[in-house]
Write a structure and sequence with these properties.
single chain; alpha/beta; Rossmann fold; 5-stranded parallel beta sheet; 4-stranded parallel beta sheet; 12 helices; binds aspartic acid; binds phosphoric acid mono(formamide)ester
């Protein structure tokens, strides 16, 4: 495989290789000169049809730290507003010489279409497609878990036996899906907790436990990791819960629930956060929270992905 579209088909060895290369990349970030010459002369195109802060900027930082040239495209302000199609946009960028394309799109499957279309002959990296997948987010989350849980001794290791509770808007979350596939491959046990209205149809066939009661789940599982998800209002065309206060009371990591967690449970959130809705400020800003570490680790993971896809060492990756 020459693209990174999903975590579903990543083998355990391939996933661990990406995580280990990301460890090397993280070491580079601690140097005074944070740059490697690995991708000199290559051009990475960031194609963003949907808003992003962390993912877009970290792919840009990752490419630059590997000495690649970067072209940033966002649909807002582009000729997409004049009706230009994905195909014509992709071919326009191909004509400018793209060696890799990072794409975020509001439609599930858009990165795969790009990879299979032949419109552009370059590795495609999925930076989040609709409600489908966000593979580099799952990889950076696994990297963050490994680092926190294994105290600097994480190279080569999976997440065997680690308990992860993922809470909130599972229905609209590509982060939940990509995390589930990857965490399963790495040996973790995953539980989804959400109101019934925010659990996707068919989730009962996935390798996950499903609960509708956050307090009972936290008390019973004492998980190693609690991952809170954002309520994705922009994808909601109906009322999925009565109101914000009720959501927070039932499914939010508020101050009381946070205080009841074991002190070694780590609290994750992919960002952006709705503070006061799915997570309280005290939980988000606590020492148990990895929110900003996740952002830092995102650069290392994206460096590893770009490096492995572009350096010619692709066989080793996938
Ligand atoms: N930033 C993540 C995503 O784009 C999570 C979120 O937006 O809630 O999927
Ligand atoms: N976590 C994440 O994907 O953030 P952005 O939407 O800001 O890129």
């Amino acid at each position: 495989m020459r693209h990174l579209l999903t975590t579903k088909h990543l083998s355990r060895d391939a996933a661990i290789q990406i995580l280990d290369v990301a460890e090397d990349m993280a070491d580079v970030a601690n140097r005074e000169v944070k740059k490697l010459p690995a991708l000199r002369g290559k051009t990475v195109v960031n194609l963003f049809f949907e808003d992003s802060t962390r993912t877009r900027i970290s792919f840009e930082a990752a490419a630059k730290r590997l000495s690649a040239d970067v072209i940033n495209f966002s649909a807002k302000g582009s000729s997409v507003s004049k009706g230009e199609s994905l195909k014509d946009t992709a071919q326009t960028l191909a004509a400018m010489g793209a060696d890799a394309v990072v794409i975020r799109h509001q439609s599930s499957g858009a990165p795969q279409v790009l990879a299979e279309s032949g419109w552009i002959d370059a590795p495609i990296v999925n930076a989040g497609d609709g409600t489908h997948e966000h593979p580099t987010q799952a990889l950076l989350d696994a990297f963050t878990m490994r680092r926190r849980l294994y105290n600097g001794q994480s190279r080569g290791r999976d997440l065997d036996g680690v308990g992860v509770v993922i809470v909130g808007d599972i229905l609209h979350s590509r982060v939940a899906r990509s995390n589930l596939w990857l965490l399963e491959t790495l040996g973790a046990h995953v539980t989804f907790v959400a109101p019934a209205t925010l659990v996707p149809l068919g989730a009962e066939t996935w390798p996950v436990a499903i609960s509708y009661d956050l307090d009972a789940t936290l008390a019973a599982e004492k998980p190693d990791v609690v991952m809170m998800l954002r309520i994705q209002s922009e994808r909601m065309n109906a009322a999925f819960f009565p109101n914000a206060r009720e959501y927070s009371r039932e499914w939010g990591l508020d101050d009381v629930r946070f205080a009841a967690l074991p002190t070694d449970t780590i609290v994750m959130h992919p960002g952006p956060m709705n503070r006061g809705l799915e997570i309280s400020a005290a939980a988000a800003d606590s020492a148990q929270s990895t929110v900003l570490e996740q952002v830092t680790n995102g650069v290392s993971i994206r460096m590893a992905a770009l490096y492995l896809l572009l350096s010619g060492d692709r066989e080793a990756l996938l």
